[in-house]
Amino acid sequence: MSTKTNDPKQTAPEAEPVVDDIKTEPVTPDAEEKADKKTAQKEGKEKEPKASKEPKESKEKKETKKEIEADLAAEKDKYLRLLAEYDNYRKRTAKEKESLYTDAKIDTIKALLGVYDNLERGLAQYGDEESPHRKGLEMVFNQFKESLKKLGVETMDAAGKPFDPEKHNAVMHVEDENYGENTVVEVLQQGFTLGDKVLRFAIVKVAN
């Protein structure tokens, strides 16, 4: 007795694949050239962002460099101005200190000029040059004059010199044939100078 199976895998014939005919066109030189151009354009577009980025970065660096140079120049200018101001301040302060010292020195010396006058008058009272009192007073007077000289104080040698209104104060005018016109005949009170400054005018008698 024969048996029949209804298994489709055994009964159905295998279907052969149907392959459609693929038509291929021959590659011509023009088509190949167009393909190369498209590829080149595509690669160029991909590289464009990198090429455009580099000049932008370079421009930013240049701007940053200019800003740094400008800031440096500004700071240098500030430093030079500050240095000049400090130098002027130092010179001005030194000049003010020197002026204060000179003014204080002048005031102190002026207060001592009265002592000079009294010692000079005291010596004039002693007629006897051999008197021990005169010699002692003369020694004190000479020591006092040396002290003034060390401080830079000089006496005016006015007797017999032409009258100078910048240094002399004329209180008397006399007729004297032994002296020329406008000549100091006698010094009534000694004058003093400290450098180029007049501490005290010399009081003098002038010939007409």
- Largest beta-sheet characterization: 3 strands, antiparallel
- Give the CA-based shape: rod-shaped
The radius of gyration computed from the alpha-carbon positions, rounded to a whole number of angstroms, is: 58 Å
Tally of helical segments:
3
Counting DSSP E segments of at least 2 residues, the number of strands comes to 6
Order of helices and strands: HHHEEEEEE
Mean pLDDT: 80
Which class best fits the helix and strand makeup?
alpha+beta
Give the helix proportion (percent range).
Answer: 55-70%
Could you give the distance between the termini? Answer: 189 Å
Query: Low-confidence parts, pLDDT < 50 over ≥5 residues?
Result: 1-24
Hey, roughly how much beta strand do the residues contain?
A: 5-15%
Sheet with most strands: strand arrangement: 1-4-5
Q: Explain this structure to me?
A:
The protein is of the alpha+beta class. It is 58% helix and 14% strand. It contains three helices and six strands, in the order αααββββββ. The strands form two sheets. Strands 1-4-5 form a three-stranded antiparallel β-sheet. Strands 2-6-3 form a three-stranded mixed β-sheet, with no helix packed on it. Strand 4 and strand 5 form a beta hairpin. The chain starts with 7 loop residues before the first helix and ends with a strand.
